[in-house]
Amino acid sequence: MVKPYVFEKPLGMRDILPELLRKQRFLESVLRSCINKWGYEEIATPSLEYFDTVGAASVTVTDHMFKLLDKQGHTVILRPELTAPIARVVSSLYKDVPYPIRLFYQANVFRAQEKEAGRNAEFFQTGVELIGDASVDADAEAIALAISCLHEAGVPTFKIAVGHIDIVMGLLEECVREEEVRSQFCRFLHQSDYVGYRQLVMEYTDDADVIDKLLAILRLRGGRGKIDEARQLITNPKSQNAIDTVASLWGALEAYGVTEHVLLDFNLIGRFDYYTGIVFEGYAADLGSPLLSGGRYDNLLERFGRPAAATGFALEMDRLMTIPTSYHEVRTEQIVILYKAEYREEALQLAQQKRKEQQVVVTGPWTDETEKAFASLDNSKLIRLGET
Amino acid sequence: MSSTDSLQKLTIAMPKGRIFEESLVFLKQAGVVVEDDLKDSRKLIIPVPDFQLEFILAKPADVPTYVEYGVADVGVVGKDVLLEEERDVYELLDLQIGRCRMMVAGLEEYQPSANPRVATKYPGIASKYFRLKGQQVEVIKLNGSVELAPLIGLAERIVDIVSTGQTLKENGLVELEHICDITTRLIANRSSYRMKSEAVESIAQKFLQVIPAVEIL
Predict the structure, then answer these.
(1) pLDDT band (50, 70, 90) for residue B2
(2) Are A344 and A277 within one domain?
(3) Mean pLDDT over residues B54-76, rounded?
(4) In terms of residue numbers, what domain contains A354?
(5) Distances from the Cα of A44 to the Cα of A109, A145, B191, angstroms
(6) Of A253, A266, A322, B71, whose CA is between 20 and 30 Å from B41?
(7) Which of B90, B189, B195 sits opposite A159 (nearest CB)?
(8) Which CATH number fits domain B3-98+183-210: 3.40.190.10, 1.10.3720.10, 3.30.540.10, 3.30.110.30?
(9) Sign of CA dihedral A48, B88, A117, B161
(10) Number of CB atoms found within 10 A of residue A56's CB
(11) Which fold, B100-180?
(12) How far apart are CA A172 and CA A267, in angstroms?
């Protein structure tokens, strides 16, 4: 390997300089106070977890995990997300706390290094988990809270696409008998390859009715009206149940008054077969990747020994940061006290006094260099103590 | 520009050359008129304000990159590039142009060797294909004139796209295995597909009206 230059960092790692961090912290505090108002409590979990427990339960594919060996030779991972660690906590330390449990986090997560811009190996998420509530009201709460977060963060134009896994799954079970072929259909949908999906439909059957149904799923995107359209088209009980859930969810979202931001998308099934019910993704104008994603994951908690229904979402802070939001940077004024040696005590006491008055104060010896350095700052008020 | 305006405007990444021209013919048939002198133009960004469109002209292999990062909302690109690049984009339509096939080719007298080598412009596709077939091969990436490789002993076989087979024939090569068929696809950015669903749907419908072979949507 080539010896790194002193300015280089490991692939995918970044420094966050004060100008940017100020904005990130501001957005984090906005989100924190928003989420707090919904009764969620903040939790922190360790950066390292065991691969065999949290790693195995995680939605992140193994290839994308950052793996290391600890001193005992266990494979450990840098946490790829917080949902699995939180499930671990809820099933162990919190096992006597009754459901429902509402938790949120603001944390850095890690993915294996990829050699491309915008694919950071470490990035920041703000997320919520609502554990132990299987009702559609919980799904609606997660979505409404996500919308609330985006509002408060000042994202000007955004949409939340909402789907339900079982609409597609029920349809495939109804139309395709062979499990092997079903998983092929799923794979095309997971990869968003609609051309491949259509080709497979045409190869699979000549039955015009079945073709019609299988292709319809690609078109079922839009507003409230798509619920009835789906009901007409897809008649198996599993899908019908899911459609009823979506209809009920829509009612709850109407009650929250947020449906203008919601787009139904019945072929949205998440990236992996991890979600078990309602799924959603948030998009902002002029941002190429989803801003947030989430959904119901009723099978995760039982892997840690305390079965429970759960839902939640994670918001990508790095992506939120790139959106021109209504955030206006307010730089606090600072007082700079420069002093000659004989005025030191007076200067430092003055500084302490002003700090008690909540002012930002910087102090230092008064020389030609310090004079020049501070005079060039536009947010500084200079106080000089001593004779030139 | 208000945000609703920006939700109507669509940026389309196109590969330079033949595919771009064929796509323009399609769009013209569908009523989208783009100036005629584009062929000789060296411009890389071509606005079509009347239809709230903008074309970005790119290297074919870069089209899915532009679309994945969201600097283009939709793109027109060959399935060969999509298979090689494995980008996170939506594949919406088969435009049925640029038809060819991904093949393994070699000299007629080709015999499997102990340490087989394969030359290709598509190292990703080639590696994946041979792995799935349970064969371990060494893949050599070339940037053009792949047909040379078996002739001069760089590799016994090549993986490349073949349309008429003329180049292979003239160089004494034969098609050994068929990997898959390739056509040009319409792809979309994940976010644009939802944020600009009407505009994306409308351009897809325009293509759909004029795609030669029948495809049911």
Answers:
(1) very low
(2) no
(3) 93
(4) 336-385
(5) 12, 20, 31
(6) B71
(7) B195
(8) 3.40.190.10
(9) positive
(10) 12
(11) D-Maltodextrin-Binding Protein; domain 2 (3.40.190)
(12) 12
Q: Would you say the pTM of this structure is higher than 0.90?
A: no
The answer on A125 and A56 residing in a single domain is yes
Q: Which two tokens stand for residue B52?
A: 């709230």
**Which residues are A102's β-sheet partners?**
A130
Domain count, chain A: 2
Would you state the pLDDT for residue B3? 46
Alpha-carbon distance values, B118 to A117, B110, B134 (Å): 30, 12, 15
Structure tokens at B104: 């393994």
Nearest to A283 among B90, B93, B191 (CB): B191
- Interface check A225 vs B, CB under 8 A: no
Q: Tell whether A221 and A351 lie within a shared domain.
A: no
Reported as a single tens digit per residue, the pLDDT across B146-195 is 999 999 999 999 999 999 889 899 999 999 999 999 999 999 999 999 99
pLDDT tens-place string over residues A311-326: 999 999 999 998 876 6
The ipTM of this complex is: 0.80
Cα distances (Å, whole numbers) of residue B189 to A123, A285, A319, B23: 22, 12, 15, 19
Beta bridge partners of B159: B104, B120
Instruction: Domain ranges for chain B, please list them.
Output: 3-98+183-210, 100-180
Closest residue in B to A283 (Cα–Cα) = B191
In terms of Cα–Cα distance, which of A332, A172, A62, A289 is closest to B90? A289
Give φ, ψ of A80 to 5 degrees.
Answer: -85, -15
Tokens representing A86?
A: 């939180």
Give the residue from chain B lying closest to A192, CA to CA: B90
